[in-house]
Backbone:
């Protein structure tokens, strides 16, 4: 691990002030610290957000849930409000990693890292969420821009994520056995904005499966989703699965997600 300066502010303002230059925000540390240990990441300063109290917590109203950036996966999974309004989101959080990861990892850290196989990006895009920062509101569809890349500007701080409630929603992933990251994960929702289908694990970034959305808009059934043949353009291919395999699994996982959503 390279040498770095460490700061632990207690307010949002101090955190943003400390984040100049080549600084990085440190949330749960489940991705960044591991990358630094392997010398895959280097920053001159880490700004630990653990003591910024107002970045934690969950607020809900009749139509949405807003989750503070430093709220852990375990807290989201256990939240009565999330389980009531968006049970698919609670189940997604409860299936991330292992107990240590769920008790340390945070929603803000996860989406800022933008791992192409992470679960939370599928929920952000699949529910049409809005990412709130210290500067602005960013639509979920515009937040993830590429492999480990987001729309965040240098020093911009995620403060929370607002998820609209859906009439029906579910997330299903085919897990890589060792890491529990998604080889293919699909979040399906049906709400006032129509049908949304977000896919993680298949490309360099989460994306919407427009052809499956169109099929489900006509018939919200597992059969409709499974009948869609996804193209292999841009689909990942590696030792865990070919592009053709992953493309086929998108329709299969979407079908299972629709079945789960209808069963609620």
Residues:
């Amino acid at each position: 691990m390279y040498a770095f300066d460490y700061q632990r502010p207690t307010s949002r303002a101090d955190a943003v002030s400390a984040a100049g230059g080549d600084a990085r925000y440190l949330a749960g540390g489940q991705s960044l610290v591991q990358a630094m240990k392997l010398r895959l990441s280097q920053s001159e300063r880490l700004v630990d957000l653990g003591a910024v109290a107002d970045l934690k917590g969950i607020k809900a109203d009749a139509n949405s849930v807003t989750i503070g950036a430093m709220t852990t996966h375990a807290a989201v999974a256990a939240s009565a409000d999330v389980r009531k309004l968006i049970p698919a989101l609670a189940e997604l959080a409860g299936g991330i990693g292992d107990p240590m990861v769920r008790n340390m990892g945070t929603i803000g850290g996860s989406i800022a890292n933008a791992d192409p196989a992470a679960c939370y990006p599928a929920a952000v895009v699949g529910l049409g969420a809005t990412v709130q920062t210290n500067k602005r509101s960013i639509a979920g569809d515009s937040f993830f821009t590429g492999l480990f890349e987001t729309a965040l500007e240098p020093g911009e701080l995620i403060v929370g994520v607002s998820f609209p409630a859906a009439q029906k929603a579910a997330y299903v992933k085919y897990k890589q056995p060792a890491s529990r990251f998604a080889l293919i994960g699909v979040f399906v929702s049906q709400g006032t904005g129509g049908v949304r289908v977000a896919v993680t694990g298949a490309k360099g970034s989460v994306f919407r499966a427009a052809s499956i959305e169109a099929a489900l808009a006509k018939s919200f059934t597992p059969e409709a989703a499974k009948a869609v043949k996804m193209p292999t353009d841009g689909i990942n291919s590696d030792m865990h699965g070919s592009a053709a395999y992953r493309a086929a699994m998108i329709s299969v996982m979407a079908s299972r997600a629709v079945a789960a959503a209808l069963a609620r």
